[in-house]
Amino acid sequence: VEAMNRYGTDKPDMRFEMPVQEVSEAFRDGAFKVFRGLVDQGGSIRALVVPGAGRQSRAQLDKLVDEAISLGAKGLVWVRRSEEGDVQSSILKVAGAQALTRVVDMVGAQADDLTLLAGGFGFEASELLGQLRLLLAQREGLIDENRMALAWVVDFPLLEWSETEQRLVSMHHPFTSPRSEDLERLESDPASVRAQAYDLVLNGSEIAGGSIRIHDSSVQASIFRLLKISDDDAKMRFGFFLDALEYGTPPHGGIAFGLDRIIAILAGEPSIRDVMAFP
């Protein structure tokens, strides 16, 4: 959740900062009805500060808004300070200088910085700003291409809701173990349960992933029930594994590395096809 909120992705490129930040409070009681209504409905307004990009022309800013729309956004708001220190924004007339000044103060934007705002539900705004984060960091030359930045991403949700199937599905696979401290909420609040899963990310690419597996037959049965997998179906599909659990399977887990991805990064190639013997 932290990675998604802060970087808009579960594979964050940590060679540069530019975090996505929460600024909903600046609009909760404000004059801008679009953002205020979104916050009232449980959505959020999030901000991305782009260092040194505040002196772009209006044509460049309009192009940036168009790029955001091409990425699926309904719109994009920009805020900056003029050379005299006055706040400027694409929503200045409807939001007011006071709310927008509060935003740039909240995110710590400097005189030459550009602040981008987006709203949405769940991770919508963070995912959009996360894509712009990568795009603009490359465009503004903010990425140290010689740096190798590793990050562990942990505490993935165990389950997620599928709108297409109208049921809970496994974020990874149905044999991933829940975190022991979350087990008591497995039946009452399954969406809040975290998985004992982990990814290793290098420069924004996942180079390894793994998990601790379920070794308790009663926990496995609970997961199948939450996934709407009947006892008969589970026996037919996974009978050999369920039988093994009854014999006292020890705790176990693992991790798998993507060697082709690692080699591609080390070689400076954008695609793994360029380093595979038989692409």
Automatic annotation (TrEMBL):
<protein>
    <recommendedName>
        <fullName>Aminoacyl-transfer RNA synthetases class-II family profile domain-containing protein</fullName>
    </recommendedName>
</protein>
<comment type="similarity">
    <text>Belongs to the class-II aminoacyl-tRNA synthetase family. Type 1 subfamily.</text>
</comment>
<dbReference type="Pfam" id="PF00152">
    <property type="entry name" value="tRNA-synt_2"/>
</dbReference>
<keyword id="KW-0030">Aminoacyl-tRNA synthetase</keyword>
<feature type="domain" description="GAD">
    <location>
        <begin position="35"/>
        <end position="118"/>
    </location>
</feature>
<dbReference type="Pfam" id="PF02938">
    <property type="entry name" value="GAD"/>
</dbReference>
<dbReference type="InterPro" id="IPR029351">
    <property type="entry name" value="GAD_dom"/>
</dbReference>
<dbReference type="GO" id="GO:0004815">
    <property type="term" value="F:aspartate-tRNA ligase activity"/>
</dbReference>
<dbReference type="GO" id="GO:0006422">
    <property type="term" value="P:aspartyl-tRNA aminoacylation"/>
</dbReference>
<dbReference type="InterPro" id="IPR045864">
    <property type="entry name" value="aa-tRNA-synth_II/BPL/LPL"/>
</dbReference>
<dbReference type="InterPro" id="IPR002312">
    <property type="entry name" value="Asp/Asn-tRNA-synth_IIb"/>
</dbReference>
<dbReference type="GO" id="GO:0005737">
    <property type="term" value="C:cytoplasm"/>
</dbReference>
<keyword id="KW-0067">ATP-binding</keyword>
<dbReference type="InterPro" id="IPR004115">
    <property type="entry name" value="GAD-like_sf"/>
</dbReference>
<keyword id="KW-0648">Protein biosynthesis</keyword>
<feature type="domain" description="Aminoacyl-tRNA synthetase class II (D/K/N)">
    <location>
        <begin position="2"/>
        <end position="279"/>
    </location>
</feature>
<keyword id="KW-0547">Nucleotide-binding</keyword>
<keyword id="KW-0436">Ligase</keyword>
<dbReference type="GO" id="GO:0005524">
    <property type="term" value="F:ATP binding"/>
</dbReference>
<dbReference type="InterPro" id="IPR004364">
    <property type="entry name" value="Aa-tRNA-synt_II"/>
</dbReference>
